[in-house]
């Protein structure tokens, strides 16, 4: 069969079993507010904010208008040695949302680029302050930090790097914090698990602090199944990294921009890292934008030489239309109080998941803010549950063993209940 006779053949889809998809394709042709419209005309409720991203809801007129206006005025401006006002305006707006001390913004185009950028900044910073032996990077088991070579090296999901052989040298990993024996039914942050941060001391003892540049963790791990940090865990990581001169990086590609009921997870958990990576929610997915947030200390160390510049960047860093989308998105979130609303949404999701666990439909639940996961019975395939939910008009996220619910922050209470009702009906029918 030629490509001309098969309109689906040419596209190689990411993170997708392509043959299976193309045998029974599921295509979305439009979206508005909380719903997608499929190619067969069905309305499908978005329970995952697209891909953890669409915090402000779909096709908001003010964001669309901002993109259109900017595209008509400035299609492209090179970010090397030149600039445009929107990128500086957006950097200032983001800095205003950050914990004290984090106020320097480097723009990328995705979460994966953000992580690789942060790792490179960490190495450059250590070298600039005379610590060039610090080249080792520490991630965490079950961590997801994108698909760049740096991200999959520090990431702890083995299937994401199994096909690619040896990656970055000098990488080690902390243990993950999830233990069903101790925290299967914990409400909020588990009391058990803070001691696992002490494994960083063991890694320091093994390799020497003088070899370690940075530690990167998600404050709350999302893509691996929504793993909430134990009480005191992040605080211990902060204490240990500070003690040994190691940079602490929070990967906030999922938790950033309101998802937890604060603008960033660093604020929600009360722990300030040295760097934060972001993407997804900054534009609510309307345009590809990511970035790295650092502070004055890192900036000043790198800029001791007046002629210094970071030999790193992207053709589309801080693209004008992308910045316009982000500024319009932040304005909506502030005007409509969506960050605060995340708390209400999360409480309603938690209540529903608690009820489904109490009646035996689910075997547990966990989450924070407006991102939650319901644990499925051990013999149940999450992808089967997801596909059945889509047929019933709701998109949820399948992760081995769990179904994640992470809706746009404009979801109504009734729509939250619909997501949970469909989840319950599908699980009970399997």
How many separate structural domains?
2
Order of helices and strands: HEEEHHHEHEHEHHEHEHEEHHHEEHEEEH
Q: CATH-wise, what's the superfamily of the largest domain? A: Type I PLP-dependent aspartate aminotransferase-like (Major domain)
Mean pLDDT: 95
Low-confidence region ranges: none
The top level CATH class name of the largest domain: Alpha Beta
**What class would the helix/strand composition place it in?**
alpha/beta
Task: Please state roughly what percent of the residues sit in beta strands, choosing from under 5%, 5-15%, 15-25%, 25-35%, 35-45% or over 45%.
Answer: 15-25%
Please identify, by name, the CATH architecture of the largest domain.
Answer: 3-Layer(aba) Sandwich
Radius of gyration, Cα only, in angstroms? 22 Å
For the largest beta sheet, what order do the strands appear in spatially?
4-10-9-8-7-5-6
So what's the overall shape?
Answer: globular
Largest sheet: 7 strands, mixed
Count up the helices.
15
CATH topology of the largest domain: Aspartate Aminotransferase, domain 2
Number of strands: 15
The helicity comes to: 25-40%
Distance between the termini: 37 Å
